[in-house]
């Protein structure tokens, strides 16, 4: 059964190009290890809700936007194997090193794994 890792993150608008370059590199690594799909989307019609919303979830600051993304796998077992390889990959470690100043604040990233509920 398909399995998805989903995440949202706040990205400074001035860093969107750098973030996109980083994401393309990350996506290639995930796909190299077996992920079926890697997609990222930038907010276009995302409002701040009264109680909760994507902007509230990532504590969006002025000058930032929300990126919504997912990575698709064949199964949870495949996801666990792939993510173990990705997390051990020196290319990813180098890109995410705080000294290299990633173009987003990873502390405000929200992510998790999801199993399929409805497929139409």
TrEMBL record:
InterPro entries: Dimeric_a/b-barrel (IPR011008), DUF1428 (IPR009874). This is RNA signal recognition particle 4.5S RNA.
């Amino acid at each position: 059964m398909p399995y998805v890792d989903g995440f949202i993150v706040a990205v400074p608008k001035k860093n969107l190009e750098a973030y996109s370059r980083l994401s393309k590199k990350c996506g290639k690594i995930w796909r190299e290890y077996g992920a079926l799909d890697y997609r990222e989307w930038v907010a276009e019609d995302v409002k701040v809700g009264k109680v909760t919303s994507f902007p509230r979830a990532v504590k969006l600051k002025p000058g930032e936007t929300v990126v919504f993304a997912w990575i698709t796998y064949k199964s949870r077992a495949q996801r666990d194997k792939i993510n173990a390889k990705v997390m051990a990959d020196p290319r990813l470690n180098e890109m995410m090193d705080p000294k290299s100043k990633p173009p987003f604040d990873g502390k405000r990233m929200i992510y998790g794994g999801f199993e399929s509920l409805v497929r139409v």
